[in-house]
Amino acid sequence: MQQLRRNRRLRTNEAIRSLVREHTITPHDFLVPLFVVEGKGIKEEIPSMPGYYRYSLDLLTNEVKELWSMGLKSVLLFVKVPDDLKDNKGTEAINPEGLMQRAVKTVKEAAPDILVMTDVALDPYSSYGHDGIVEKGYIINDETCKVLAEMSLSHAQAGADFVAPSDMMDGRILAIREVLEKESFKQTGIMSYSAKYASAFYGPFRDALDSAPGFGDKKTYQMDFSNRDEAIKETLMDIDEGADIVMVKPGLCYLDIVRDVRDAVDVPVAVYQVSGEYAMVKAAAEKGWLDHDTVMLEQIMAFKRAGAHIIASYFAKDIVKLLS
Ligand SMILES: NCC(=O)CCC(=O)O
Ligand SMILES: [Mg+2]
User: How far apart are alpha carbons 206 and 201 in whole angstroms?
Assistant: First the structure.
């Protein structure tokens, strides 16, 4: 029989390949994580994240302007808190003059139309390096939610457009939503880290913020990486509690979860390509074992294919430079 269908006709050259391409990457896909420190004139490279930096507020301004000029219109802020300001309750997290609150204002001054999201979790503020208040070695849930709600309100008052709770306490989305509604921050959004797994891929990030847990691990609140169905339960509960955007984290090992969530929900889905994923590519490329740019592109495209609407990635600038 004569062969009538030949799939390779659609791969003949770049023109036809681009004509039939199912997914594309644009600067609008990205949420750019930014690490902020106290001080002046600081742009320090994170040792386990080559090419990624912590900025003091004065230098953050230039970075934000550059992102904006590249078409990167959304940032996600993290702060590195000095040790002497850490305690069990994360008191510094709700200081209206705290580093996060000042960072929000700095970013908005540098680029007034940029979308500012703030990390909401106690770990950078916790003397134990945990995402909640510790009592007898256990991270207590409901008391922690109250602090997270106060913290979210404080970020909204500083000008944050979205708060992004990354802690995995039960019921924190509802606690945050109620406080924001009551205090007339009805327009402030919540991007929930809904399905966040207890992962060793967060290692370099904990170096970046000096936020590694001082005892134990995070398995009593973050998800077990053996579980798939549980991600849907977590995600649907957060949507019921008022989450505007949901997230799966980490990224590459969890593409099945990204697709499951995308098929199950009617809100935008974000994925977080975490520090360890970034570090692996950088390290292999440095050794000459992988081609940095094509591997980076292939991974980012995998997130789009899996169904992510939003990609939080340390590669955002690299990608935009490569595509332009
Ligand atoms: N809440 C942020 C993290 O837990 C870690 C992110 C990363 O490893 O990039
Ligand atoms: Mg949950």
Answer: 10
